[in-house]
Amino acid sequence: MDTVKLQTESYLFESLDKKFRAFPFYELSYEEWVVYENGHPKYLLDFNRRNKPLIQDLKIKLNKGEDLEDIVWKLGRFLGKEWTTKHNIEGLVIKGSQKIEAIELTLLDDLSDLFIDLIFVATDNIDCEILLNDQKLFDTFSNNNELLLESSFIDNYDNLIRMLSFLFKTDTKLKKLASNNAKDVFDLTSYKQNCLSEDELEINYNEWIDIVKRENTMDEFGHLLGIIHYINRFRHKNHLVLIAEKRKHWK
Q: What's the pTM?
């Protein structure tokens, strides 16, 4: 993701007999919003970047009457992050305390560095032409209205490796079988017999939260539980592969 360096003013604030310096970003236009993660300024939403995927998605929601703060909070929760557009500065500004400073923020205009769609596929035969084609994949792995695939997501490839190493109880390396402009296909066959049980997930789940530094939610637990259930259900299949695709839009 691109970054931007802002020349902005910091101010001294006073609260409960304590003084602290912070960035209220008074100079931003109505088209620009700072997104705070865990109380710290991290991202810049610039609605002047109209052709960017995430900006288009947010505009659609705003045009439907949704509130930006609510949208950003929900997107953060979706990604396992604590996000807000509201700064947490509590105190009175000290007059004449402003100082010009530079701060670097990440432009938040697509999700490709924050969100990877994952599809686990248990199969007796590996056909990369099918695996890289959505329609062929769903046609091949549909049975009596049941889709014999498991979908999940992760925020980046580093955490994908951490997740797989956690699930398979061993250091995991990604062996790429095929790719196109959008998707990568990886072979996980050699690891599938080592997959955690559901009981082991219950015992070790907090270890995963400590590893990945994500918000502890039922959705987070549910994603891992779904993957484990799928892998162990189809352990008898000859192969286990993973399809990974970076997502730009917030669907």
A: 0.80
